[in-house]
Amino acid sequence: MKFFHLSASSRAPPNGNLAVAHEEKEKIIHEHFKTHLGAAPDRGITLNWSALALAQHDLSSLEVPFSLEEIKETIFSMPSDKAPGPDCFTGLFFKEDVLEAFHQVHSMNGLDFKFLNSANIVLIPKKPDALAVGDYRPISLMHSIAKIFSKLLANRLASLLNSLISNAFIRKRCVQDNFLYVQNVVRRLHRQKKLALFLKLDIQKAFDMVNWGYLLEVLQAMGFGPR
């Protein structure tokens, strides 16, 4: 991974001292983010998914090959001049010559497509006086091909999301709606003098710490196909 766009002249390591040399800053940044990025260790246990009785969904439409119209619509909806990833291709390149763009990928002869999972990571300061590494937000600049496939899949998933995910993340619905729902439930239980237990979890960097093996198991249990 490459780290660049380090706008501050110093970094604060855990001992509180300031790091000025580029090598020192590189080491501090690497040590900080290696706990959040990269491959997770193997999981020793898993869940009995059949016992959970998760609702099954017909998701066969996600498995069919992409049509030419789907690909064209996705590519031409991309921003033309957004910052590129390691491949250095912007959206404009694909719009100008889609066929040549895919020829460039094909020229790799299928040797190794792991490069699609690599990215340039830009550190954006969260506040004006950013000093510690935690004061910076990492933004990943991905390969354009990976963006296209991600967008294609997102477009297909859009019509199915309402039945698949938590209602806190449905488009046009505010997350505060669920707070109001919980408040109403608490008031009702209080009036009825019923005992209840509510649990609220706030997991630090929850989306950065997802175990991909576990996530794939969840998707398969919900009816997603092998692709």
Tell me what you see in this structure.
The chain is 37% helix and 7% strand. It has 227 residues and is mainly alpha-helical. It has two domains: 2-164 and 197-222, no CATH class; 171-196. Strands 1-2-3 form a three-stranded mixed β-sheet. The longest helix is centred in the last third of the chain and has 17 residues, at 176-192. The chain is globular, with a radius of gyration of 22 Å. 6% of the residues are buried.
List keywords for this structure.
227 residues, mainly alpha, 3-stranded mixed β-sheet, 8 helices, globular
What is the rounded Rg?
Answer: 22 Å
Percent range for helical residues?
25-40%
How many strands?
Answer: 3
What order do the SSEs take from the amino end to the carboxyl end, as H and E? EHHHHHEEHHH
Structural class: mainly alpha
The main pleated sheet reads as: 3 strands, mixed
Total helices: the number is 8
Count of discrete structural domains? 2
| Unreliable runs | 1-10
How far apart are the termini? Answer: 27 Å
Order of strands in the sheet with most strands: 1-2-3
Mean pLDDT: 76
* Residue share in β-strands: 5-15%
